[in-house]
Amino acid sequence: MGVTVDRRDFIKVISTAGSGLVLGLYLPSTNKLIGKPVATTLFEPNVWITVQPDNLVKILVSKSEMGQGVLTSLPMIIAEEMDLDFSKVVIEKAPANRKKYGWQMTGGSNSVSGGYKKLRKAGATAREMLVMAASDEWGVSTSECKTQNGIVINKRTGKELSYGDLAEKASQQKVPKKPVLKDKKDFSIIGQNIKRTDTFSKVNGTAQFGMDVQLEGMVYATVIHSPVFGGKLKSYNKASVSDISDIIKIFEIESGLAIVTKNTWAGLKASKQIKIKWDEGEAAGLDDEKIRKDLIEASKEKGSVVRKEGNVKKALKSSKNIIEAMYESPLQAHATMEPMNCTAYVQRDKCEVWAGTQDPNGARKIASKITGLSKKQVEVNVTFLGGGFGRRAFNDYVSEAVEISNEMKKPVKMIWSREEDMQHDYYRPSSVHVMVGAFDQNNNITTFKHRIVAPSILFTQIVKMPFPLKENADIIAVEGAKHLPYEIPNMQVDYQMTETPIPLGWWRSVYNSQNAFATECFMDELAEKAGKDPVQFRLDLLPNSSRDVGVIKMVVEKSGWYDFQNGSTYQGISCHKSFGTWVAQVARVSIENKKVKVHEVFAAVDCGTVINPAIVKAQISSAIIFGLSATLKSKITMKNGRVTQSNFDDFEVLRMNEAPKIHVYLAENDKAPKGVGEPGLPPIAPAVVNAVYAATGNRVRNLPIQLG
Fold first, then answer.
1. Tens of pLDDT along 322-354?
2. What is the pLDDT, as a whole number, of residue 17?
3. Distance set, CA 683 to CA 461, 581, 586, 608, 659 (Å)
4. Is the dihedral angle over the CA atoms 87, 88, 92, 94 positive or is it negative?
5. How far from 701 is each of 519, 521, 563, 613, CA to CA, in Å?
6. Helix, coil or strand: residue 393
7. Number of domains in the chain
8. Which of residues 368, 395, 415 is at a domain's end?
9. Which of 391, 415, 439 marks a domain boundary?
10. Could you tell me whether strands 160-162 and 151-154 are parallel, antiparallel, or unpaired per DSSP bridges?
């Protein structure tokens, strides 16, 4: 997850020089305008766009590509406003430079939502300046000109000038202060299923992931970390690996023990054989039983209230019809297909880094601190990411590579083993959810109470307590629960923070995955108590204008909810809003040999304006598959302070033959686009669990699902 930065209008004139007009990017974080002189043969109206004389238009993307499609969707926004021929667009990834490109963190499903307005203005500015250049050339008004596929056309004469022909003259035009954006009805690129621009390189093997970086004179490194969180290196025996050839150097770094070798295999072999003694520290006795006990004990304490309507205490006291439940979610690893890795080359006057990172500016800052070089002397090249999901928002692996290269004075490719990757993650925290509902004598719901108990990612990784917050609570930990849309007279949501030595981090959809599991499963329990159909129960508690209503009705219609007959297969429903997007899902399951088989999932999505429907559907499908792994199979467990899982054999993910048929339906509206990378995940667990209850008559309140 990233941090959303509210950007203002950003295209401003900073100078007019003999070589042409120079524009810059307005950065709220620095309150400065930046730009650079341009050659007269090029048109660079802002940091995102370059029009070349050969009619190619280069568009720069400052977000990391980790499979979510930003190298396609973000250029589509600019191309739409510029009226470009998308086949003549050249897309490049921007290096780390916060001063120039602003906030480059990729996370929180905000790449498109955060960039939509500014990129449209960037494209519209360029288009209007090209039109002004053509009008000057022809001696006509701009109203007599139109644009189409990278060409300005004289509407009266039919004459045409390409953007490349106009590049030099366009650079000399006055910058429009308020460029006119296109009407949605005139869109020809936004809303289309344009093929992803990164697909071909990934198919033919030319795409560069972090693991693919090769430099002349490069050596290889692996790092061994303490098996217990917070443990420190006491000693190691080099002689225990003296029989392994190709070892160059073994030395201690801040996070553990670095082994530098001539090849990766030698490093991995040495890491398994070397004798090491650790000071395991205070976390050595940590196990699942203690984690769960601490959470349950904390649930008995009064939490920080983040939502309060009516009088819950009074309502519960007066009701004779009360239902209670406790839901539990375990630790989860990111388990990216590409283990953590980074290549770094520290030299006397510069440092260059190649990494698949969600936070390139953070990587640049870290490298500067380790080397003592200025940020200007550090270049971070962002490769493709072989999975991120929030894990690569933490640059611990970058820090290690830079530290090792700084010691070796050579280019170093540092690669974690799969075991190190699994056992030294920044995990989604475990949580407990205490749910209470109450009804009147007519079985109308009167009260809803949700107590969230979990460690805080915010206060362990980002800021340290005490930290002044209005509600004295982790505002991220209550996402998806605090703003529950159901209208119930008496409602209370509170949060009780616990402490843990386990490193915590953003996991796809963050706390929404746990909160939705608890709230939407409990809504089904409440519906049964009220004697109502779970769909109608939800609709009765929502205002008709709610976008929740829209997606629920859509998924009910598309799935044929009321026509479906239980037999060997059973269905469940859920609905959840996260990252500005509403998603409702219906899951159909069967029980085979006490195992849950998910056959089909229907998803209705309201994410506002859809840039590329194919990408949105792919992202929703991806989130569903990711969420199903956590629902049916995977969890992280602890014993003696150690993570017990080590690879995909004991941290299972959904296999291709286990994947359900997924149907994704998109609502149409003129609202601004919102996130799609994460919102598809939270509803899947409760939809499946609710279907399991329909099949078995037994409530599942712990994940992953275990029957019998």
1. 999 999 999 999 999 999 999 999 999 999 999
2. 24
3. 27, 12, 9, 18, 16
4. negative
5. 11, 8, 28, 35
6. helix
7. 3
8. 415
9. 415
10. antiparallel
**What is the pLDDT at residue 660?**
98
What CA–CA distance (Å, rounded) separates 672 from 679?
16
Do 490 and 361 lie in a common domain? Answer: no
* Residue 181: Cβ within 10 Å count: 14
Per-residue exposure over 77-93, b if at least 16 CB sit within 10 Å of its own CB, e if not? bbbbbbbbbbebbebeb
What are the CA-CA distances from residue 706 to residues 44, 83, 159, 701 (Å)?
A: 58, 54, 70, 10
In the predicted model, residues of the chain with pLDDT beneath 70 are 1-40, 463-472
Same domain for 270 and 301, yes or no, is no
Tell me the CATH number at 379: 3.30.365.10
Predicted pLDDT of residue 708: 77
Task: Judge whether 103 lies within some domain.
Answer: yes
Query: What is the rounded CA–CA span in Å between residue 239 and residue 234?
Result: 16
What is the residue range of 51's domain?
A: 11-204
Instruction: For residues 132 and 120, give the distance between their C-alpha atoms in angstroms, rounded to a whole number.
Output: 18
DSSP per-residue string spanning 125-160: HHHHHHHHHHHHHHT--GGGEEEETTEEEETTT--E
* pLDDT recorded at residue 18: 25
Amino acid at 483: H
The answer to whether position 365 is within a domain reads yes
Residue 413 CB-half CA count within 13 A: 21
The region, left, alpha or beta by phi > 0 then psi within -120 to 50, assigned to residue 201 is: alpha
Taking the C-alpha atoms of residue 571 and residue 565, their distance in angstroms, rounded to an integer, is: 9
Residues 184 and 302 in one domain: no
Is 6 a member of any domain? no
Q: Are residues 180 and 251 in the same domain?
A: no
Query: At a CB cut-off of 8 Å and minimum separation 6, what does 171 contact?
Result: 20, 21, 38, 40, 42, 43, 44, 45, 129
- Shared domain check, 462 and 367: no
CA 599 to chain centre: 26
Give the containing element (helix H, strand E) for 113: helix 111-138
Q: CA 494 to CA 516: how far, in whole Å?
A: 15
What are the φ/ψ torsions at residue 157 (nearest 5 degrees)?
-100, -20
CA distances from 524 to 484, 513, 590, 651 (A): 15, 17, 19, 30
**Burial of residue 133, with CB atoms counted within 10 A of its CB: 0-12 exposed, 13-18 middle, 19 or more buried:** buried
Q: Are 572 and 693 in contact (CB under 8 A)?
A: yes
**Verdict on whether the full-model pTM lies above 0.70:** yes
- Same domain, residue pair 532 and 661: yes
| Contact of 372 with 383, CB cutoff 8 Å | no
Q: Tell me, yes or no, whether 240 and 112 share the same domain.
A: no
What is the distance between the alpha carbons of residues 506 and 456, in angstroms, rounded to a whole number?
Answer: 11
Residue 420 belongs to some domain of the structure: no
> Which tokens is 138 given?
């022809």
Q: What letter represents residue 231's amino acid?
A: G
C-alpha closest to that of 117 among 38, 1, 272, 8: 8
- Judged by DSSP in three states, 247 sits in strand
Q: Are 562 and 573 in contact (CB under 8 A)?
A: no
Rounded CA-CA distance 660/666 in Å is: 19
The sign of the torsion formed by the CA atoms of 382, 387, 393, 394 equals negative
CB 703 within 8 A of CB 631: yes
Render the burial of 382-395: b for 16+ CB within 10 Å, e for the rest: bbbbbbbbbbbbbb
Distance in angstroms (rounded) separating the CA atoms of residues 344 and 410? 8
Token readout for 487 is: 């209208």
Q: Are residues 490 and 599 in the same domain?
A: yes
Q: Kindly report, residue by residue over 41-73, the tens digit of the pLDDT.
A: 789 988 999 999 999 999 999 999 999 999 999
